[in-house]
Structure formats: structure tokens, C-alpha cells
Amino acid sequence: MKIFVTGVGGQLGHDVMNELAKRGIDGVGSDIQEVYSGIADGTPVTQMPYVRMDITDAEEVRRVLTEQRVDAVIHCAAWTAVDKAEECPEACRKVNAGGTENIAVVAEELDVPMMYFSTDYVFDGNGTRPWQVDDERNPLDVYGATKAEGETAVMNHVKKFFILRIAWVFGINGNNFIKTMLKLSKTHDHLRVVSDQVGTPTYTLDLARLVVDMILTDRYGIYHVTNEGEYISWYDFTLAIFEEAGVKGVEVTPVTSEEYGAAAKRPYNSRMDRSRIREMGFVPLPEWRDALRRYLIALKERGML
Question: Is 205:295 a contact under the CB 8 Å cutoff?
Fold first, then answer.
């Protein structure tokens, strides 16, 4: 089996490629860069084939996927700069909606399964009930709207599709909330962190395992996937990060989303019901606290902590 992975320059794509390699599955990675050599600290990506592909170029997508003769596509590439999307809505839409549709059209032409990664931002964040996979989508911002449009493109064009809605992603490759908090803790003795947005984190190393488990099956559909464990706020998550990393002397103050004042509206309720993972016979991700501990160890081993 040969699997094509987009966005290998990001957190998830990098880990998916390495998970494929670990299992002896042929993988071809792609991203917008001409050459991809590895992550920022110099750790090389698993040496597997790489091809540049601009997902916003429909003809290039058709040419590359057809030439590669792939058996499945795992589409990790995305515009993820949430606040920047408010300034550049059409650029964001071109990637998240247009790029996804380009891949979906060709995946169906080739009759191969496609996996697409969506987000908790497709919901409006009202209430406290965990979101079900078939709940109505009502995004609050440009990023969420374009990811919802990507979902629609996949459902409209691909018969054999997986849509995984994920949230609060962190991995070795690239930037994320954990790295930001640890960096700020070295230069600040006081931090303000939002306490009214609630959800659960997703470790890309754990997610990559489930992704490969899924793509090898025909159990298609929409899934909500984050690490297991209690629902927490970003404030709670920060306290856990500092506790596990041994950070001391930093005062963390909880603030509301309004007080924090980000450019894009975030959903208050990012609780997602993950029960379909078990119902469809897959093994859920470990609890987020366990994932956090393992992630910090991985950062330390690479000299990144």
C-alpha cells in the first residue's frame, strides 16, 4: 500500500510519515517547500519520498497524485493561523476550502480513500454539552468557516472519506501552545491565560497512530478525536504544563476571552464526544496528561526544553 501525505512540514504530517515508516508502509510526503529536510532542531524526518505540491493548484494536484499512483491520501496541510485568517480570509479559504476540494476531486477520480482533518472551530461553542459528530456546524470565524467548507468539499466529492475533527494540537514539529507557554515562562514572571474556553488537547504522536489504524480500514465517516481525559480550560492546561515541566516562579492569572482580546472569535465550548472511536472498533488516544508528560520528555531529549 502506498499512502500520500500532505503537509509533512507541520506537526501532524511529520508524525504520520514517521508512523507509516515504523509500520513498514510506503509513504510519500508533500508540502509547499521545494525540499523538506526535517524539523527545526535538525532532527531529520524519516527518509521517505518527498514531492513538492501546491494544493491550491488543481492541475498540479491532479498531476502529482496521478503520477504517484497512491492507494490513499491523508490530507494534513492547512492554514492554521486563526487570527491571521481574519486579515486574509480569501488566502485562508484558498488553502482550507479550495485546496481540500482539489484533493477531494482527484481522490474520487482515482477511487482512493481520503482523510481530512477538521476542527472544533466548525461549531459555535455554545453550551457545555460535548459536540456530537452530526451536530449542526456554525463557525464563528474565518478559520472555522473555511474548515467547514473543506468538510463539505470532502463529503460532496469523496465516497470513501474520513473526517477527523481535532483540537488543541501539539507535536514536536512546529509551534504550539505548550512550546509558547514554556518559552514565555523564561522571560515573564506573570502570564494571563484564557479560562473560559474548554476542551481537550491532541498529541500528534498519538493521533498519528490512530490515523494509520483508520486509513487501513473502510470504516469511513466523521470522528471527533482528541486525547482522552477530563475537559479543561487553556488556564488549566497551562498550570498542568508548568507542573509537569517543573516551571516555578511564574504567576498565571485566568482571564476571559473578552479580556484577552484575540482577533478571531474562539468557541467557548470545544468539548467533543469521542465515543465513535470505540464504537467503530478503534483504540482511543491516551489521556492528555499522560500525553503531556511524554511530550515534555521528547522535547527534553531533543534539547528543546
Answer: yes
